[in-house]
Amino acid sequence: MGMTAESFKRRDETEANKHNKYNQTMKGRHLHMIAIGGSIGAGLFVGTGSALRRGGPASLIVDYSIIGVMMFNVVFALGEMALMYPVSGGFYTLVTRFVDPSWGFAMGWNYFLQWAVILPFEIVVASFTINYWTEGSVSPAIFMAVFLVALTFICCFGALGYAEEEFWSSFLKLSAIVTFLIIGVVLVCGGGPDTGRYNEFWGNRYFQDNGGFKNGFQGFCSVFVTAAFAFAGTELIGLAASESKTPLLTLPSACKQVFWRVTLFYILSLTFVGLLISADDPDLIGGNAFANSQASPFVLVGKYAGLFGYDHFMNVVIMISVISIGLSGVYGGSRTLTALAEQGYAPKFFDYIDKTGRPLYSTILILVLGLLAFAGVDPVNGVELFDWLLALSGLAALFTWGSICLAHIRFRMAWKRQGHTLDELPFHAALGVTGSYIGLGLCILVFIAQMYVAICPVGGGDDGSIYNSPEGFFKTCLAFPVVIFFWVAGYIWKRPTFLTIDKIDVDSGRRDIDWALHRQIQEKRANASFFMKIIYKLF
């Protein structure tokens, strides 16, 4: 890990680390936990409250399922490419290589800005969880400072510090969700304490109003942006793969575990949220950027059930979860900025990587941007500032995921055109290139739905009409013009020629695959028992 003065000096580039300057310190257990629980945070535990209020329980489940199907295909597409090309910066460099350099430039800056904004937001949400106990008697700025110092300390240990924190925080998050699922079954069946609300059979009473769809088609479309926010960070598995010791063994399994996160930890938990909390509950907060844990459906279930101490337990889980996502923001944002600098798309000094594999100056910049969290202390101007900052990340993830699918489609086209076969790929996406077409198509449909809601929001515009104001529109879709700006800027700056399929380079920079080990793994699975074949297929 290295915390000496020598460890902070620039790493010398050698042929061994030409395509990957980071230390491969992550272990298999780290990669698995990042895949299955890494991005679970405020989007699930807190954001579902406002989503439930806008769209109802059925919209909540359907929209999250659609985003889940999208993410399943995105992660497998990224996994296939990341295992072939061990490049720092993850997906962004793949977009530059297989789609278009100017579009890759736009996606790199889009991804950096997404994480740069997420960090101060998560720090604010974490400080507000403390307010659940202090009830406003202590300034949240104190806790913001504590959380920022804690994140800075963890970052000193580089990728291994991030991986260890993600492992244990993911373990806590997953344990909390499993506990919630067990409690949810009991409460829906009427097994709650006599002092609480759920002491009789509860059933699906909240799904009976309009079939669980609130505010019609507008409400349905409005939930997508919250669902996308909740899944943001799932693609970090591609970044982490470049810092894993044994990606050939761990990355395919980690990609498969995304399916279990979607089905078990998202869809099932949201089903019980919809069964137990009404979309018209007055305690739910609708769309405030400073949504706090008191409005979390996961906390409200314990409160209404009369479960002593459960609300405090979930509040602790939420606090740790949002801090974890903040750390992911530092990790993802710093690696992306460093990759931009390495390709000449950002100031050169940001390509500084020290001897222990830390992208030093990029990490420092992300942490400095975390100071924006202190704007949240101002109840008026702080909210306004964060509304605009979060507008940058509202659609950013959709552009990221769509670009990954498009890169995979063009990679497969170039791979086939240049005479290669699928047997030369050590790992195949579950649904092949078809899955990437599905993922890209869903990204486009969700983008259209979000544009519709931005123009015609739930409840109408501020002036009483059905249409949104220009300010309200851009607070929802600011990421769109920002991406277009960077795309045009990248084209003007680099003047790239159109990247045809024949011009795509699929050979240079490929990972040195241990094919003997690969064949050994395949033979082991082929000769396994029927039960173990199922296990290998699912996990």
Automatic annotation (TrEMBL):
Key words, A-Z: Amino-acid transport, Membrane, Transmembrane, Transmembrane helix, Transport
Mode of membrane association: Multi-pass membrane protein
UniProt-listed InterPro entries: AA-permease/SLC12A_dom (IPR004841), Amino_acid_permease_CS (IPR004840), APC_YAT (IPR050524)
TM ranges: 31-52, 64-87, 108-130, 142-162, 174-193, 217-237, 258-279, 313-333, 360-377, 389-409, 430-453, 473-493
Highest taxon of the lineage: Eukaryota
Major site of localization recorded for this protein: membrane
Domain Amino acid permease/ SLC12A: from-to ranges: 30-500
GO MF annotation terms: amino acid transmembrane transporter activity
Pfam families: AA_permease
Subcellular localization(s) per the UniProt record: Membrane
Name of the protein in its database record: Amino-acid permease inda1
Organism whose genome encodes this protein: Microdochium trichocladiopsis
